[in-house]
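Something for you to look into today, if you have time. Could you write out one complete protein record for me, on any chain you like? The space below this message is yours for that.
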Amino acid sequence: MADNVKIKQFFTPSFTEVSNNLVSKTKGDKVIWAIVIMLTLISLLVVYSSTGSLAYKYSKTTESYLFKQFAFIILGVVIIYFAHRVNYTIYARVAKILFFLSIPLLLYTLFFGVQLNAGSRWIKLPVINMTFQTSDLARLSLFMYLSRQLSRKQNVIKDFKKGFLPIIIPVAIICILIAPANLSTAVLIGGTSMVLMFIGRVNTKHMLLTIGIAAIPVLLLFSIAVKYYDKQEQKTKDLPAILSMGRIPTWISRIQTFIYSKKEDGNEKLYQINQAKIAVAKGGWVGKGPGNSEQRNFLPHSYSDFIYAIIIEEYGLLGGAFIIFIYLVFLYRCIRVYQRCPYAFGAFLALALSFTLAIQAIANMGVAVNVFPNTGVTLPLVSMGGSSFLFTCLSIGIILSVARNVEQLEGKQPVVTPEA
């Protein structure tokens, strides 16, 4: 009998042994791991609190969305774990494949994408009946490919033809393909790419030329938004046929809403931002307490795009400041990984992925407090789960992969490893 017990224990290790084994294999920056755990716990609390109206709309319970978010978090942590166990040099080898794969996917989304929230940004996966944004895959693959190119072109990085064009062309292709369905994401990708190229020693004159060319359509869009707005009627004037194509009216409307939101509170288009302002105002310094939000019943997309407003209402300005502090610490730790990484590809990769997540967080929080026009981007690791949540976890896993390899190299003599 005793022998049977020993055999059973041999083939069925205890939970403690399994957990200790996982912990021993979990490497990388411990602070980043702690931030992931902290943000996901905050996500559970806020998503559970802010999905009441969504549950009522679809005749579901808020507990169902809580369990769904918990399942996404578990899946996301698994993705982070396995991604951080992969040697980051492998990502350099698959970067080119993923980049060229994302181009036809973006084209397919542009013409045949699923219509959700008045935009064609999604592809529906037939087997699991789940939609995902191809822009998330394109953004990740672009920054992997851009990091690879920057590391390989350092010797000729100042040359326009040999150094600049091979880097800016992929950025331009991805941004142009994403912009018609998701202009805000294209702008964020373009801005992050410029920051990365600046750190990668790209010629400043070439970058300024690119920024000047990219600024022309943006300034043109703002001028059109001002020109075709009737201040007396507080609505958009009739647009010419050429300006009524695709998502152009939505872009114009969002810019108009942002410009005139402080003057015309009676405009029905300002409903969402006004509800967000009310949520922020009700929060005060310490907030109304967890689960006590009132504006969650009136604020559209309070569980995703405007979740930061609910955080401030329930946890106050101090809670909102704490969220900002967490993202700043995350960015700082990633910059530390960049500084310690001896190989260019790993350094650029960690920096690119951390910057894009930090800029996305700033954009989401800025929209919630009416600092930026409505962008439709989520708050990383906090907004309700979806494909964006999972790709965020994959990005963090790759950053931790770089950090893990840095720790290994610092523990012994560096060994030259191929990066492309």
Observations:
- Confidence is low (pLDDT under 50) at residues 413-420.
- The chain has one domain: 28-410.
